[in-house]
Amino acid sequence: MLLITILFPILVGVGVSLPKLERRTRNLCYAAALLLTDALGVLSALSGAPLTLFRLTESIPLSFALDSLGRFFLVLVLTLYTLAGVYAFEYLEFDERENVFFAFWFASMGAMLAACMASNLVSLYLCFELATLTSMPLVLHERTKESVNAALKYLFYSIGGALLGLFAVITLCLYGSGDFAYDGFLSATAIAEHGDLLRAAAFVGVVGFGAKAGMYPLHGWLPTAHPVAPAPASALLSGLIAKAGVLAVTRLVYFSAGPDLLRGSWAQAAWMVLALLTVFMGSMMAWKEKVLKKRLAYSTVSQLSYIMLGLSLLCGDGLHGALLHAAGHACAKGALFLCAGVVIHKLGFHRADELRGVGRRMPVTMWCFTLSSLSLVGIPPFAGFTSKWQIASTALREAPGAFGVLIPVILLVSALLTAGYLFPVVVAAFFPGKDETLSAENAEPSPLMTVPMLLLCALALAVGVFGNLLI
User: In angstroms, rounded to a whole number, what is the distance separating the alpha carbons of residues 211 and 154?
Assistant: First the structure.
């Protein structure tokens, strides 16, 4: 069942790139494939048995299994790929390479599902690389010079980061089985004899895999790639594919090296410094940015490092806060990029200051933008509040030294900056001023685009209200 779930969307991706079907028929096929993949994913989560596909060497199997963490990320993958895929039916209505886009859409979906199901470090690393290779064509879809350069930058940063991760994978597997186990697979003897090497390797792996999650200093690809990709691909990159880095770091620290290896060490302190720097820097860059999608991309740099901060606390409550923020961010930021795509698709507006009065023409779209912004800022009862509260309160109890105070302060400053770059867009859209003479002609898209945005907003609220149940 696990293998079928992984291979089905990949085979669909190969299949949809070949025939020249009428557009309506092709979209029905895409929709059916998304729903069937969802059904397979649910069956895998409920009854999928562990699988060893083959062995690379005597001690390195390519194997898959689903634990609770894998199921958590699997649900995020199925949800965002399905909703953004439905949105793309109308967004790509006049795109001549729609079948190529969906070919890589489904291929990357299979790679992400495989990463969720990987049961050891080597399997995860291979799936991580496959997710990069299959999602990179989504960035260069427009085939402009800018999009090609952005795709190459995404590829080089991701592969460079993955090579750092590979050093961690090899080192940890030398002193342990490589099979995921909560609190790690390293023995007390290995830690006692090679603790410094293992600690350094784990930190290098965090930085390397953190490149996919946009953590400083390997964050540069993210604000370059997101703005040039089609809106559904931007939603996917920001809301989900960047979280392949979060998944890899979580598996590396909590299920391989073990949090005890890093707790209280220089590696934890350095990790926290990098994450805090990224949170503040991303918020400042977003606040200064005028291009809407690029502003949202810098916001992703900041918000993903909230997750990294939660993980760096190296305790169960910190992990819970990080996962809550991963779910809430996937819904809210996915909706924001889809809203930006509607404005670009229907009105051709790319800058934040061009959205003055747009609320009259696109009330549903801008209400979705508003609700998603509330979640991202951290206004209760949305998901952003629940997760930030969890991370900040855990930091006050668990973070070493001055970090216990510094983390909540930086989170609060970042929340204010987030309000500063999102709320003015909302206010200008709904309250342009009496002197403004703007068109009131309705420009809302069809339900193919509005329903996915509404559902993502509803999910952001649900994660906030029922966060404890989710954890």
Answer: 10
